[in-house]
């Protein structure tokens, strides 16, 4: 059984390289590649602050989802990577603005968070999500 796959690409976000797509829509889902706090305007991290990076990464994710006809409200799973796991409470504060009962998602998605030694481009935060199409 073959399932059609559609590449989702948002031109305002930093260009991808040939090894991945910003997102793939398939089987009623949108699979968004990991997003960091890179500003669409500059192509650089918005700041050195993990909370500001988290906010921008989630906004980048929202942009990709909108392009696919989806939204943060339809996110069913989120994976979060932090270079400083001690900053999880700061990140959760920002994350909660988008993915709690008061945010876009009335039903918070399943979530995994973990500490990592490094992220691309010196980022401190990265998020990867799966959403309903």
Describe what this molecule looks like in 3D.
The structure is a single chain. The protein has a single domain, classed as 60s Ribosomal Protein L30, Chain: A. The protein has 133 residues and is of the alpha+beta class. The chain has a six-stranded mixed sheet with strand order 1-2-3-6-4-5, with helices on one face. The mean pLDDT is 92. Helix 1 (50-67) packs parallel to helix 2. Helices cover 23% and strands 28% of the residues.
Order of helices and strands: EEEHEHEE
Distance between the termini: 20 Å
Structural class: alpha+beta
Number of helices: 2
CATH topology: 60s Ribosomal Protein L30, Chain: A
Overall mean pLDDT: 92
Our count of domains comes out at 1
Q: Give the CATH class.
A: Alpha Beta
Helix content: 10-25%
Query: Unreliable runs, pLDDT <50, ≥5 residues?
Result: none
Radius of gyration of CA atoms, rounded to a whole number: 14 Å
What is the number of beta strands?
A: 6
Q: What's the quick description here?
A:
The chain contains two helices and six strands.
How would you describe this structure in keywords?
133 residues, alpha+beta, 60s Ribosomal Protein L30, Chain: A, 6-stranded mixed β-sheet, globular
């Amino acid at each position: 059984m073959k399932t059609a796959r559609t590449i989702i690409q948002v031109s305002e976000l930093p260009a991808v390289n040939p090894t991945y797509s910003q997102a793939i829509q398939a089987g009623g889902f949108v699979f968004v590649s990991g997003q960091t706090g890179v500003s669409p305007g500059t192509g650089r991290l918005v700041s050195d602050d993990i909370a500001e990076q988290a906010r921008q990464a989630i906004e980048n994710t929202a942009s990709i989802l909108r392009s696919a006809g989806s939204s943060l409200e339809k996110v069913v799973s989120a994976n979060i990577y932090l270079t400083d796991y001690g900053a999880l409470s700061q990140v959760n504060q920002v994350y909660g603005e988008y993915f709690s009962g008061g945010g876009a998602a009335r039903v918070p998605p399943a979530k995994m968070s973990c500490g990592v030694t490094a992220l691309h481009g010196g980022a401190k935060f990265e998020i990867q999500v799966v959403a309903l199409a």
